[in-house]
UniProtKB/TrEMBL annotation:
It comes from Phialocephala subalpina. InterPro entries: Ribonuclease_T2_eukaryotic, RNase_T2-like, RNase_T2-like_sf, RNase_T2_His_AS_1, RNase_T2_His_AS_2, RNaseT2L_C. This is Ribonuclease T2-like. Rnase which modulates cell survival under stress conditions. Released from the vacuole to the cytoplasm during stress to promote tRNA and rRNA cleavage and to activate separately a downstream pathway that promotes cell death. Involved in cell size, vacuolar morphology and growth at high temperatures and high salt concentration. It comes from the Eukaryota.
């Protein structure tokens, strides 16, 4: 009966995705906050919330999210004068965000949200519901009437997907680290230096916020050409926002009370250690960070491939026999024909661990034909290839 129920639910989700409508097509769109006359069609023009603000948290007490990444606060439709509306449609104040996203097959999106859109009190679902109800319902282009062939609640995955996709283009941690601004229990920084580092990456000054003298929020402003769903986001100077940070003496505290040191490349910032050392046991949720020559170089993504420039996948480790099994959003992970892979239908392999490193048949060394770069993903093998790699567990 349980298997039958899963099949029915999967079928419903697949049908929902197939039947989903599409945002209204916008021809000759106008850039929000730049119109000189009133525009009636707010399906193609964000109004009155014309400046979209992607907001990020740096939580340290308690810590949330990866130690080398900011996390998502939300996506806010601010008026073009510093004011904003909130809680605009009580009929769409949904209280089942996770199930809505699951019904639209958004498992990868949920995985990203569980990693990067996290609540300081541990209640992610309530946090997501709040952000959608307070801000998402006020984005004019998400109104049901702005969809052709509207399917119930389809604006919800559009809102969360756009917010996460936008967040992934705004790597605040790397932007600051590239300017020598890294988390520290002792160092302090100036507001001008922080803004200069962020502007060098973003193109405009964002707005920074502090709490008890410590940097804890960044607000990136955009004007949008067209709808939020399909339009072009253009970095913009903030309008009507003010910073709560002092000009000097700003702390940027490390997460989890530990000092974070970084090594940067042109595309990625990683936590560097001389040798891979486990940061947690293989249980619950975590990342599988890749190490070559004793330095971190990327991680595994959801299909089980090695990637150096993307977002790490969240894996679930579950005790099994004398070891554990692994699962990503793609499905169970296993070794098949000397290849590590994760997908639906894969028979789960029971792995073991040695000093926080993934082990298969007692060996912690895996292989690839080359170190991946750019958009290239590398297949991970258990048989000897040109490159040796080890995978460290990092609990999240």
């Amino acid at each position: 009966m349980a298997s039958f129920s899963k099949i029915v639910l999967a079928s419903i989700a697949a049908l929902q995705v197939v039947l989903a409508g599409s945002p209204k097509t916008c021809s000759n769109p106008t850039l929000s906050c730049h119109n000189t006359t009133s525009i009636a069609d707010t399906c193609c023009f964000n109004a009155p919330g014309g400046q979209l603000v992607q907001t990020q948290f740096w939580d340290t007490s308690p810590s949330t999210g990866p130690s080398n990444s900011w996390t998502i606060h939300g996506l806010w439709p601010d008026h073009c004068d510093g004011t904003y509306d909130s809680n605009c449609d009580a009929s769409r104040a949904y209280t089942n965000i996770t199930s809505i996203l699951q019904s639209y097959g958004k498992t990868d999106l949920l995985s990203d949200m569980n990693t990067y859109w996290v609540d300081i009190n541990g209640d992610d679902e309530s946090f997501w519901e709040h952000e959608w109800s307070k801000h998402g319902t006020c984005i004019s282009t998400f109104k049901p009437s702005c969809y052709t062939g509207y399917t119930a609640q389809e604006e919800v995955p559009d809102f969360f997907q756009k917010t996460v996709d936008l967040f992934k283009t705004l790597d605040s941690y790397t932007a600051l680290a590239n300017a020598g601004i890294t988390p520290s229990s002792t160092e302090t920084y100036t507001s001008a230096a922080i803004l200069a580092a962020l502007k060098a990456s973003f193109g405009q000054n964002p707005t920074i916020q502090c709490s008890s003298g410590a940097l804890d929020e960044i607000w990136y402003s955009f004007d949008v050409l067209g709808s939020v769903q399909t339009g072009t986001f253009q970095p913009a100077a903030p309008v009507g926002q003010s910073s709560s940070c002092s000009s000097t003496g700003i702390k940027y505290l490390p997460k989890s009370g530990g000092t974070v040191t970084t090594t940067t490349s042109a595309t990625k910032t990683t936590t560097a250690t001389s040798t891979p050392t486990g940061t947690g046991s293989f249980s619950g949720s975590g990342y599988l960070n890749a190490y070559t020559g004793g330095s971190q170089d990327g991680c595994l993504i959801s299909a089980g491939t090695w990637y150096t420039t993307g977002t790490c996948a969240t894996y679930t480790a579950t005790a099994s026999g004398s070891g554990f099994t692994l699962k990503s959003s793609k499905g169970s992970c296993g070794i098949s024909s000397d290849t590590f892979t994760c997908a639906s239908g894969v028979t789960a392999t029971v792995f073991t661990a040695s000093n926080g490193l993934l082990a298969y048949n007692g060996a912690t060394t895996f292989y690839a034909t080359a170190v991946p770069s750019g958009s290239t993903q590398a297949t991970v093998y258990t048989s000897s290839q040109s490159v040796s790699v080890e995978f460290q567990w990092q609990s999240v």
